[in-house]
Amino acid sequence: MERYYQRGDLVIMISRGYTNIAEGSVGIVRNTHGVLVNVTFPQGTWAFPKFELKPLTKETTCTQ
Q: What is the CATH number of domain 10-55?
């Protein structure tokens, strides 16, 4: 499933590969560039591949 993010979208981190950001953390999209998405989490702002994030919607929660 291709995901398209826009500035201001809320996203959930679904990767366990980061020491500073826990899986399930909620962030806000700042901008996108190709397959990278710049996201701000409480710990800071970084660029992540799209597949390491999922959109936060009414149908999902941080624990799903």
A: 2.30.30
